[in-house]
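Late entry, evening session. Most of the bench is empty. Finally got around to the prediction I had been postponing all week. Sequence below, unchanged from the version circulated by S.P.
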Amino acid sequence: MQSFSRTRVPRLKDEVEGDLFVHGSGEFAYALAERGLVDEFEVYLNPLVWGQGNVHVLGDRGTIRMELDDVKRFDSGVVLLTYLPAAPSTAAARAEDRRG
């Protein structure tokens, strides 16, 4: 996954017209985010509570700082929260430092 995200994702972003989405893969999303390859996070907050399941969107691997950019409310009660990385180059630099 490391070599794929480091080399292929930047090329995909250049080659593909439009947006690229990652859905349901916390480890892959984290790997992209820590390398500064995520432009935007969309989090749908649903007004339901389950007794079990994953709590962390990006897994339990570390922290990616984000800034709230937009909020959309739907009649169903669902809220779409759009975040931008607070400092993508800082996250990428920290990850590189950890890898040595």
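Two things to note before I forget:
Residues 2-15 form the longest helix (14 residues).
DSSP finds three helices and three strands in the chain.
Will write this up properly tomorrow.
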